Amino acid sequence: MPNQTIPNYVISADRLSKHYGDFVAVDGISFDVPQGESFGLLGPNGAGKSTTMKMIGGVSQRTSGKLTIMGLDPEQHGPEVRAHLGVVPQQDNLDEELRVRDNLLVYGRYFGLPMSYLKPKADELLEFAQLTDKAKAKVDSLSGGMKRRLTIARSLINEPKILLLDEPTTGLDPQARHILWDRLFRLKESGVTLILTTHYMDEAEQLCDRLVVVDKGQIMAEGSPARLIREHSTREVLELRFGSERNTTVAADLAGIGERLEPLPDRVLIYTDDGEAALEQVTARGLHPITSLVRRSSLEDVFLRLTGRSLVD
């Protein structure tokens, strides 16, 4: 391995771009990730999240810009960089024919790790993933949540310093998601740097110390979840439903209430620092919604404001 000093950041991207012909998947993004941080890439489908992850993982070459992992360029020092990485892809790619423990052992051999290390390490990881009682089971007998935990356990076989997680809980039920969040939080506590993409706003709020919102290959905003909510939304949101035929037309009668008004087909959103006071103003104008809800602003409000509400295929 080349001589290394400890870098200020375990991942550093400077004007990183990736083009596929005329299509720009990643358009000159820059960010730095210090050791031990949980860093998120949040964005709609096609925003460039997975492409960025592939460049970090060294499986896709960048078109332009600079990228270093642990102070090394992944295109010039691929094997050395990959030795520091654990990768959890969007889709589980476990060997369905092998037993649970054997998946860990066989994967570890790809790194050239000796069995004297792998056998106790596999047992340790099965315990971490809460799969000890499934060690001899075939993978195809596991639930979706168990398979996801096994995929994460497998990614840790080489004791990586950085763990890349692409949509780690997609398709899981709430119980399985919370178990997975707990395992990831424990990894962060042990000093592992987490880089994750997710569509789930609550997941980003729970797991990410800091994140970037990406849209059309560009960074729209960066900061902690709390900071992004503070900068791009209000403290509370008042949700009003007047009926699908009236939501849009009644919006004019709500003008001036709160800081911002957003009429939607199914409801009207009023962004304000005091939702109850805003609701009092609504009723004082003689307007009586079918339902009303005061809630705190969330990362979803920020996400939709920055990236829009239209569907992306």
From TrEMBL:
Belongs to the ABC transporter superfamily. This is Lipooligosaccharide transport system ATP-binding protein. PANTHER family: ABC TRANSPORTER ATP-BINDING PROTEIN (PTHR42711), ABC TRANSPORTER ATP-BINDING PROTEIN NATA (PTHR42711:SF5). Its main location: membrane. It is found in: Cell membrane. It is a peripheral membrane protein. SMART domains: AAA. Keywords: Antibiotic resistance, ATP-binding, Cell membrane, Membrane, Nucleotide-binding, Translocase, Transport. One of its GO terms (biological process) is response to antibiotic. The keyword Translocase applies. It comes from Arthrobacter subterraneus. Residues 11-241 form the ABC transporter domain. One of its GO terms (molecular function) is ATP hydrolysis activity. One of its GO terms (cellular component) is plasma membrane. Pfam families: ABC_tran.
